[in-house]
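Q: Joint fold for the lines below.
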Amino acid sequence: MASEGTIRAIERMFRIAEFLGTRGPVGLSAIASSLQLPKSTVYRHLRTLEGQGYVVENEEKYTLSLRFLDLGERARGQHSEHQLAAEKVGELADRTAERAQFMIEEHGRAVYVHQQMGANAVRADTYPGKRVPIHTSAAGLAILSHYPPHRIDAIIDRHGLEAMTSRSITDPETLHDRLQRTRERGYSINDQGVIEGLRAIGAPVVGPEDTVVGGLSISGPINRMAGQRLGEELPSLLLGATNELELNITYQ
Amino acid sequence: MASEGTIRAIERMFRIAEFLGTRGPVGLSAIASSLQLPKSTVYRHLRTLEGQGYVVENEEKYTLSLRFLDLGERARGQHSEHQLAAEKVGELADRTAERAQFMIEEHGRAVYVHQQMGANAVRADTYPGKRVPIHTSAAGLAILSHYPPHRIDAIIDRHGLEAMTSRSITDPETLHDRLQRTRERGYSINDQGVIEGLRAIGAPVVGPEDTVVGGLSISGPINRMAGQRLGEELPSLLLGATNELELNITYQ
DNA sequence: GAGGATCGTTTCACCACGCGAAACGCTTAG
DNA sequence: CTAAGCGTTTCGCGTGGTGAAACGATCCTC
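A: Joint structure:
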């Protein structure tokens, strides 16, 4: 875990912060025993986090502060593509009445940047900042389909091909096949690879110099994501929005 | 800045992260010279952040990763009140066509938790996680109005009463007067205290055991936030939503 | 109400670890 | 061809992060 020449205190701090993020408000001893760290060490870290305003203490329970949200929103707002993508996600959600999202790749994983629920959208436990294995999302597949092979293989080497359902892609062969079909078709299909009964289509958003800035996608239940709607209507809306977005990015 | 018994490396790390949050993608030397830190130190910190996935490097420029958004969203989602408040913010924005928000107090400052633009809402550079001096927002004043005096004074001692416009509250006397009027009236009014031409009304959201969980508020231009609408219509909507929210929180 | 368990806090001595000056290789500009 | 800038790497110093242990407060249990 700890690479060479990196700062251990900071790595520990993030372990503590991530632990606070998964388990709600929690006390010092619980953190120390869960992370197998001495109480005094955790105490010093929490005092530091609290002093910097990144942790809130309430009745001897510690919680993450919304300062992390501040940093996160700044991270999201820094790329102008992301803001332009938000509009298109809204349009897609409105016109299809499904759930639409814009994702990017970071460190080999797919990250939700924007998402919007349409009128009939199926709920999901996704939120901005959430990261999923890149090969299990339609937007992620779309992004990969525009990457050079060595970059795809590097991601596979780093993260493997974790299965989330029985329909997930699990070996490099089929992944490359799917990516090839995605390139031919112009858009990707994720058929129940992340949640049973859920299907999604995605398209890569290509910026200047053929760099992929992210992927747009539409998700819905398999009964509505089928037939002519899946084959023509939705791809047409998706590719139309993607094209407009690419133009907005290039000529902003 | 550096208190006693806290970890310097972590404080430096946040200085670097916050710097990346304000200035977009930036190189190593720019960070080092701006923060007056040795290049090798900044380099080690960036390597650590990158290794933990909290910073993304692209063509020798460093950017905050959306992992901060992940942590931030987790922080926001951890309190069930916040999720319940989101609905009410939506209702208020829809019904008033203005901008509505829910804020909480953290470390003596007011923090945006949820905000939604109504159809006629005036734009503002606010976003979830943004922090403002608590006495310059209607929701913040509403929260303060339910705090015991010693807690209010502690906040004044810590942060002072910074002015943002000529109409801002700047001395403790008038602040306490305004809070007294807020208590009598049942809602607070922020008259151009943060932006000229903008007026807002806010109400405290009180949970079990008389603890204040946050504040709801509605903001709009002074020409629409006036007369009978300001005196009756909007307060009635605001207090109605607040009351419903309080019930939802107590009997969830 | 005494005893025990558990909590957060504080102390303190050790030495790993974070630090920073300097050197290095590389690219770009003039 | 030189010079200035960049990110990277090295390395010895000394301090700052560490963790075992003790401490006092609080909360149960009997």
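Q: Anything notable?
A: Residues 7-9, 27-29, 39-40, 43, 60 of chain B lie near DNA strand D (CB under 10 Å from a C1'). Chain B touches chain A through 51 residues (CB under 8 Å).
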